[in-house]
Design goal:
Blueprint: H1 2-24, H2 41-60, H3 64-76, H4 82-98, H5 102-115, H6 123-126, H7 132-150, H8 160-173, H9 177-190, H10 195-211, H11 215-228, H12 236-239, H13 245-257
Helix pairs in contact: 2-3, 2-4, 3-4, 4-5, 5-7, 8-9, 8-10, 9-10, 10-11, 11-13
Length: about 270
Amino acid sequence: MCSSDRPAAAPLLALLASALLAACAPVAQQPDTPRVPTISESQLREKARQSLQQGIEHYDAGRFTDASNSLTGALDHGQLTRPEQGSARKYLAFMHCASGRQAQCRDEFRKALEIDPNFDLSAAESGHPVWGPIYRDVRAKLSSAAAAAAAPKPPPPRPGAEGALDQGLAKYAAGEFDEAAQLLAEALKKGLAAKPDQISALKHSAFSLCLLGRRIPCRNEFGKIFAIEPGFDLAPAEAGHPSWAKVFADAKSRAKAKPAAKPAAKPAAKK
């Protein structure tokens, strides 16, 4: 019995010994991961400025390909100040214009002006025959767009009598005097609440009628103004107009000659 059990135990012992040896074997160390060098923001900014300076030097030397690469690299760092970005864009624009690439030249000038509101060319640069006209055109268009964006929006149209007044004044300004007279009469008929609006409607109605050669209706409109505002007078620029100066003077004279309305007599007190 004992002799037959020994061969069966031998493989088990060998397995145990192998496991023990594996456990005691030294663990292989993994190689250290190489560390990526870090670059500070100030170093990036300095590198961008160096690229900008190199680009300008290449440009001055006529090495436009090198200049373009350096200036583009300086912008790609994203660390240039606004004036520095404008300077880089300026030289890129110069090179595009000098090479006949007007669309790219125009685009670089636009970016420079949008980045730095104080960006401008020197007198000598602005007067250059190749890129000077393009720069001035881009600047003018951006200024016009900015002015249009900053302009106050017109108020919404007024309804009713006031709306008819506004339309009548617009027609008068456009020289459409017949339509103006009709709209102003409509505004007065509907009833303008404010006294200045009433006077404006009557005055421009009178102007329109006189310009249409209808002198008596023109005088009547002036007369209605004096009924509302006895001290009314035309502005100096309006008073001397040949179409209505005499008509207005006649209406004013008639208003002064007209006797003032007597106040209503008080009822007698009862005894």
